[in-house]
Amino acid sequence: GDSVTQMEGPVTLSEEAFLTINCTYTATGYPSLFWYVQYPGEGLQLLLKATKADDKGSNKGFEATYRKETTSFHLEKGSVQVSDSAVYFCALREGGSEKLVFGKGTKLTVNP
Amino acid sequence: DGGITQSPKYLFRKEGQNVTLSCEQNLNHDAMYWYRQDPGQGLRLIYYSQIVNDFQKGDIAEGYSVSREKKESFPLTVTSAQKNPTAFYLCASSTRTGGVPGANVLTFGAGSRLTVL
């Protein structure tokens, strides 16, 4: 079945450091891909998405590119802030399905 | 403002008791979902509903039950049959995808934390 694999956390960075959180997926067709973010004590919020190969999703300085050849959707940000501290989830939805499949999440802590 | 309201935020239950978690949305979304979140496990789908009076089991439905009598409401009951119910429960809703790529953007509630004593 469909699955999403994220890099193990936690990730700890200093403010203004470069961030990469790896995400790879397994799917039978051509899924849509998503990154969600969860701030402490809250539900998840959509951060960005991409619906086809080579699409780049971006929001709040975060970017991720849909790479079909490597089945990846890595999340990047050039300069993180303390306020980016959260748990980040990669997810996919197979075409025709109403269900999202989530990765296990990666906790990011940014220190001043 | 439109959104999803989950209640209660915190709930304590004794073993052998059933408890019901409330989820209400005013986004006019057709589809609603319940996820369970455990540390290091990510989100696992319990039940989902695409339309009133219809719902489907997710990956971990055993020990849970739901109803969808109104479009706005999708309550989850955690029964005494659930072996390890202590977890963070998240309700979400979305428009139906209709097969449109990327259309299934979920809006989440703030969650309910259930602890079994």
Summarize the structure.
Chain A is an all-beta fold and 112 residues long. Chain A contains no helices and twelve strands.
Structure description:
The complex is a heterodimer of chains A (112) and B (117). By secondary structure, chain A is mainly beta. Chain A has strands at 3-6, 11-14, 19-21, 23-26, 32-38, 44-50, 56-59, 62-65, 75-77, 86-93, 101-102, 106-111. Chain A is globular and about 45 Å long. The model of chain A has no long low-confidence stretch (mean pLDDT 93). Chain B is mostly beta strands. The mean pLDDT of chain B is 90. In chain B, 0% of the residues lie in helices and 50% in strands. The termini of chain B are far apart. The chains are: A mainly beta (112), B mainly beta (117). The A-B interface holds A 30, 32, 34, 36, 41-46, 49-52, 89, 93, 95-100, 102-105 and B 4, 6, 31, 35, 40-43, 45, 48, 50, 58, 90, 92, 96-97, 99, 101-102, 104-106, 108-111.
Please tell me what the overall shape of chain A is: globular
Order of helices and strands of chain B: EEEEEEEEEEE
Structural class of chain A, please?
mainly beta
Largest interface: A-B, 26 and 26 residues
**How many beta-strand runs of chain A?**
12
The termini of chain B sit apart by: 36 Å
User: Could you name the ranges of chain A where pLDDT drops below 50 across 5 or more consecutive residues?
Assistant: none
How much of the residues of chain B is beta strand, in percent?
over 45%
Average predicted local confidence, pLDDT of chain B:
90
Oligomer: heterodimer
Q: Which structural class do you get from the secondary structure elements of chain B?
A: mainly beta
